[in-house]
Amino acid sequence: MRTYHAAALSLCLLVAGCGQSKVSVAPQPREPDSNAIGYYCHMTLKEHVGPKGQILLKGSTVPLWFTSVHDALTYAEQDLDESELAGFWVNNMGQGSWEHPAPGSWIAAKSAFYVLASSKAAAMGGNEGVPFKKRDEAEAFAREFGGRIADYGAALKEVAETPVAAPGEGAMR
């Protein structure tokens, strides 16, 4: 009889605990639509070539869009409290082209390899951090366009500290 009561009590505790757990779903990057507007420049993303960035803040369902990775890294370094961050993604430039980053090519910004100081400028000018998922793709890009490879922390610091270029030096269409 004791075994029966112990088993019944265990079953009740197990069932009672089932409703208390919350399943946390990791946020996912989104694809920009034709009306996605850059956070700083207030221009549509489609008006700019090169890699883009998106940052999702906790409690929000709509990401902040950035017309360049330079702008996204600047925001992350200067304006973002890390505790507010739900997700930060950049285009993997190992897919698509400079003119048209591939749809679905979003990768976590913190895991990317960045090519800094290449001949490719950010959308509104300045040193673009060109992100890649794979180091060998970043190395191939650096051989073709110059620059050096950096991890997220180094890219964040350097790109955010680099002044924006003079008018006409950006990568607009």
**Beta-strand fraction estimate:** 15-25%
Instruction: List the uncertain runs.
Output: 165-173
What structural class should be given to the helix and strand makeup?
A: alpha+beta
Mind telling me which CATH architecture this is? 2-Layer Sandwich
The percent range for helix content is 25-40%
Number of domains: 1
As a whole number of angstroms, the C-alpha radius of gyration is 22 Å
How many helices? The count is 4
Distance between the termini: 80 Å
Count of β-strands: 7
Strand order of the largest sheet: 2-1-3-4
Q: What is the CATH class name?
A: Alpha Beta
Characterization of the model:
With 173 residues, this protein is an alpha+beta fold. It has one domain: Alpha-Beta Plaits (2-Layer Sandwich), CATH 3.30.70.2060. 28% of the residues lie in helices and 16% in strands. The chain has four helices and seven strands; from the N terminus they run αββαββββαβα. It has helices at residues 2-18, 69-78, 135-145, 152-161; strands at residues 53-57, 64-66, 85-91, 106-108, 113-116, 130-132, 148-150. The strands form two sheets. The chain has a four-stranded antiparallel sheet with strand order 2-1-3-4, covered by helices on one side. Strands 6-5-7 form a three-stranded antiparallel sheet, sandwiched between helices. Strand 1 and strand 2 (64-66) form a beta hairpin. Helix 2 crosses helix 4. The relative contact order is 0.16. Mean pLDDT is 85; it is low at 165-173.
